[in-house]
Amino acid sequence: MSRVPRALTTTAVTAGLALAATLAAALPSDAAPPRFTPGAAGAGDPYFPEMGNGGYTPIHYEIGLKYDPATKGIDAVTSVQARATQNLSRFDLDFQGLTIKNLTVDGRRASYTRQGTQELVITPPKGLRKGKRFTVTVAYSGVPQTINDPALGVSGWAPTADGGLMLNQPIGAATVYPVDDHPTEKATYGFTLTAPAGLTSITNGDLVGKRSRGGWTTTRWVMDQPMASELAMIAIGKYDEVRGRTATGRPNLTYTDVNLRIPADKARQFNTQTAQIVDWESSLYGRYPWSSTGGITVAAKVGYALETQGRPVYDLYRRPGTVPSGSLLAHELGHQWFGDSVAPYRWSDIWLNEGFATYSEWLWQEKFTNTPIEKNFQDVYSTAATDDLWKGVVSNPGRDHIFDALVYDRAGAAIHVLRKQIGDRAFFRLLRTWQSVHRGGTGSTAQFVRLAQQVSHKDVSKWAHDWIYSEGKPSL
């Protein structure tokens, strides 16, 4: 072994240290601590600034809920699996009214405060790095609220004669479970619902298990396709069940509220016609989006039907002994494509839900009752130019007008004008392409107009300007 002189060794070490210092200064340091910031308290929708949240995206909700008729309250645990989209110091969930008993993030107790109408502000024990998957678990109890908005009607938890009903469009979900409550924030769901024996518990998705013990019955449901929170539903009460299948083999579960006194043959008709319309609309719009279908008739005094995902709800309180008409079924089942599978990017885009659901009614009426679509169109167009139908803008009706006639009938008329302009072949190709491109996600007005132009190879800008983006009655 040869020995290196001491002076040479010192020089080499000094040079090496200098080089290391230069490289350290030139390269970014991995040792710098990440900067954590709060997630936004809303999703950025101007109609509902408090709805939804920022800084993360939900992946899956697991809702365990027990209903007690003695108190008309619930005892529940909801777990939200999510992924951080920024380095999070804290984040919000939307949650109203109910009493929180325990809250953890990844199994560790987290601090929280409640702010405004529905903000549940959660600070985890340590910051959550961007890209990290985490789970928030909230245990809570109480009697859920019913929201009765002067412009938007009833949503949230609606008590019924023998139970309760959760309907969320547009602002009700947070009254029953902690949620990232905006259509852009879709997730899969699992529900474990418990109620006294003799009551039926129903929700979205596939029924995968049922057991009874100690006077209580628990059902397990899974919705494993992405769902917007406004489309989640829960019904607990006395219901008669009819089971069937569509022609393509999908399970078809329909339920009729016993308080409506619906005869067995009509209950079977409800089930059969639901399956028939699902199959027929699949031939128009493309593959049915969900693994099962069905529907629920209720006596709930909410005054509407709702396209809850995979299993629409029909309030027939004022029509006991009846089932939904074929036209109404066509509307709510048409929503399974338009509004459910493809949800609105912003609530201002709701005409893409309701206009196409209305047009689904018109298509059904033409096919099965010999009522030409042109007659429905003319009935809308013949209304006076001063009628409220022509006030407002279809693509931006305003927060308090998202359920007005311009979003339904005028939008349906606009769709018919587009069909006549681009022709049937391009029109139905457009609808199937829209579903294929945006399946399981959201779509905006601008995206639809662009796709219409691309698919049809025709200039649809004047149609969009006159019928979608402008106020007033367009000329034909």
Fold and architecture overview:
The strands form five sheets. This protein has an eight-stranded mixed beta sheet with strand order 5-4-8-2-1-12-15-14, with no helix packed on it. A five-stranded antiparallel beta sheet has the order 9-10-11-16-13, with no helix packed on it. With 476 residues, it is of the alpha+beta class. The protein contains nine helices and 23 strands. 28% of the residues lie in helices and 30% in strands.
Attribute tags:
28% helix; 476 residues; 9 helices; single chain; disordered N terminus; 8-stranded mixed beta sheet; 30% strand; 5-stranded antiparallel beta sheet; alpha+beta
Summarize this entry quickly.
The chain is an alpha+beta fold and 476 residues long. It has helices at 6-26, 264-285, 326-334, 351-369, 373-381, 405-422, 424-438, 445-456, 461-468; strands spanning 56-68, 73-84, 91-94, 99-105, 108-109, 111-115, 119-123, 133-142, 146-149, 153-160, 163-167, 187-196, 200-203, 206-213, 216-227, 233-237, 239-245, 251-257, 293-298, 305-306, 313-315, 343-344, 442-443. It has an eight-stranded mixed sheet with strand order 5-4-8-2-1-12-15-14, with no helix packed on it. Strands 9-10-11-16-13 form a five-stranded antiparallel sheet, with no helix packed on it. The protein has a five-stranded mixed sheet with strand order 17-18-19-21-20, with helices on one face.
